[in-house]
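Worked example 3 (structure in, sequence out).
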């Protein structure tokens, strides 16, 4: 088990202040951060394409960390984690399993976004006993319709962002309209709130390998998601250009008893645009 600190140590509930830690397992050193009160089942966050520990919106993490032990981590070969990025979603799920069990946990709740949602699905399919509750946001099922457009959309929006000297996430995650543009800027600024111990940016080769993994996943035969019996919360915007919004509905149809939340006039980053509405929904879902 990781160091649980002394009993009178103050509980950190701000992601900006979460200590940076590492744990080695299976030949890889995983970088992670943890916050919130220790004890009970932790909520492990599975991050998106090209993301490091610094890509989580504190307005999503902090409300959950008020009452729950939260763990974020860098996948193998990303940020401060060592090794090579795997070229399949399933291998990423194997790494996640290695990391989680190295910390000593045999039961977790999962919060996932985008590529992280694909990794989370692969993890639940392979290790159903590990996961108690599942949050899948901005993601889709293996073999989902039009999922293989992710790479093209990503490169196009990166180009658009470069031409305007903006962060690609402003294009990829948000609508370019009166509601989306200010939400995008606010989100990008929130990601800068942490000033110490910032993570290393993803390397180009690592990013390209992740895209390759998504392409493989999008063209593979679907998993049988009817086997997922865990309470599942699915969320997205109604205009996701990266992982088409219809795929959230597809997941909802495949996972029996799942809940679906679709936010209006928003894209891939809807949960960040609507964090004031979504964070309480996620907190309530985990607390049930």
């Amino acid at each position: 088990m990781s160091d649980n600190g002394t009993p009178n140590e103050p509980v950190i509930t701000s992601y900006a202040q979460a200590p940076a830690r590492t744990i080695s397992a299976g030949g890889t050193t995983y970088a992670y951060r943890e916050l919130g009160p220790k004890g009970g089942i932790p909520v492990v966050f599975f991050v998106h394409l090209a993301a490091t520990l610094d890509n989580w919106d504190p307005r999503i993490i902090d409300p959950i960390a008020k009452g729950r032990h939260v763990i974020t981590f860098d996948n193998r070969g990303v940020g401060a984690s060592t090794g090579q990025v795997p070229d399949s979603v399933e291998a990423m799920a194997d790494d996640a399993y290695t990391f989680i069990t190295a910390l000593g946990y045999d039961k977790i709740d999962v919060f996932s976004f985008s590529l992280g949602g694909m990794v989370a699905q692969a993890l639940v399919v392979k290790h159903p006993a590990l996961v108690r509750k599942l949050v899948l946001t901005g993601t889709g099922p293996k073999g989902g319709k039009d999922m293989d457009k992710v790479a093209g959309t990503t490169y196009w929006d990166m180009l658009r962002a470069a031409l305007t000297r903006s962060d690609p996430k402003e294009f990829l995650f948000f609508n370019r309209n009166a509601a989306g543009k200010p939400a995008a800027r606010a989100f990008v600024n929130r990601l800068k709130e942490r000033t110490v111990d910032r993570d290393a940016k993803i390397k180009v080769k690592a990013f390209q390998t992740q895209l390759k993994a998504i392409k493989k996943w999008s063209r593979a035969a679907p998993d049988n998601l009817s086997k997922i019996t865990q309470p599942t919360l699915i969320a997205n915007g109604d205009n996701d250009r990266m992982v088409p919004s219809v795929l959230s509905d597809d997941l909802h149809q495949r996972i029996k008893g799942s809940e679906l939340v679709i936010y209006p006039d928003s894209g891939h980053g809807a949960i960040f645009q609507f964090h004031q509405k979504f964070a309480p929904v996620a907190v309530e879902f985990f607390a049930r």
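Notes: Strands lie at 20-25, 28-35, 43-46, 70-73, 108-113, 131-137, 232-237, 259-263. The chain has a mean pLDDT of 96.
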